[in-house]
Amino acid sequence: MQIRLTLLFFISLIMLMGADTKHLARNEAFSHGEELTFKVKYLFFNAAEAKMVTSPEIQQINNRPAYKIDVYGKTLSIFKIFKVKDNWGTLLDTAKLIPHRSYRHIEEGNYRKHEIVDFDHMGKKANVRLFDRENRNVVETQSYEIPPNVQDMVSGFYQLRTMDLTRVKPGETINIKGFFDKEIYNLKLIYEGKEKVDTRIGSYETFKFSPIMPNNKLFSGDNPIKVWITDDKNKIPVKIKANLVVGALDMEITEARGLRNN
């Protein structure tokens, strides 16, 4: 159960890292056709795999061009007894970098959830549709008020990649606002400075962040989560580490394809 919960948290953490608008710049970090692969290790075991995939094809929604971005997560090897096979996605405006639609298809053991959220940014509404277990029929429809230019779970991270992180000072806090699971969420990230990180795909100078976490029984110590993002034009996440009550969990990039910048 702990692996299942921490895998879900790790995938969510990547997506929750949206951008503080005062640091936004033009998108020169990513484009269509990008694919990032990560392995999640718990103790000495490869526990899970996550992928972040930007479709090669530009989509059209609300008469606007959009990136179709999917994040996939699944458990591996002996941890398949805690079966997780999830897909979060967004249709992200290529120019404004705000979501027009987000969706979730969740398989966790016997649990299923299928959801589509359509964002009406002009009307400041998020229109949520929940589907049945087989993802065939709508079983619930609700609308919620949202702040201007709110992000979803996936789009927020990709907006972060457009930030001018060179302007962030060590100790500075970045505030994030997004819509998820029928609520407006707030997350704070503390910038801890730069650090060199060795990965399977190379060595990188990185920006290091520490999310401020609420008290819970899953993690151990002060600021138990650390996130490293490359200090280059691509700004990809290469490593995440969490100190747990029992052991530690590490997520590291294993493959990066279709990057916008060499």
For the structure shown, list the relevant keywords.
262 residues, YmcC-like fold, 15-stranded antiparallel beta sheet, 2 helices, DUF3108 domain-containing protein
Low-confidence stretches: 15-19
For the record, the CATH architecture stands as: Beta Barrel
Q: What is the molecular shape?
A: globular
Q: What top-tier CATH class fits best?
A: Mainly Beta
How would you describe this structure to a colleague?
The chain has 262 residues and is mainly beta. The protein has one domain (2-256): YmcC-like fold. The chain is 8% helix and 52% strand. The chain has two helices and 15 strands. It has helices spanning 2-16, 155-160; strands spanning 35-42, 45-54, 59-61, 64-75, 85-93, 99-108, 111-120, 125-131, 138-145, 173-180, 183-199, 202-211, 225-230, 237-243, 248-257. The protein has a 15-stranded antiparallel β-sheet that branches. The protein is globular, with a radius of gyration of 18 Å. Mean pLDDT is 84; it is low at 15-19. This is DUF3108 domain-containing protein. InterPro entries: DUF3108 (IPR021457).
Which secondary structure elements does this structure contain, and how are they paired or packed?
Elements: H1 2-16, E1 35-42, E2 45-54, E3 59-61, E4 64-75, E5 85-93, E6 99-108, E7 111-120, E8 125-131, E9 138-145, H2 155-160, E10 173-180, E11 183-199, E12 202-211, E13 225-230, E14 237-243, E15 248-257
Antiparallel strand pairs: 1-2, 1-15, 2-4, 3-4, 4-5, 5-6, 6-7, 7-8, 8-9, 10-11, 11-12, 12-13, 13-14, 14-15
Organism: Litoribacter ruber
Protein name: DUF3108 domain-containing protein
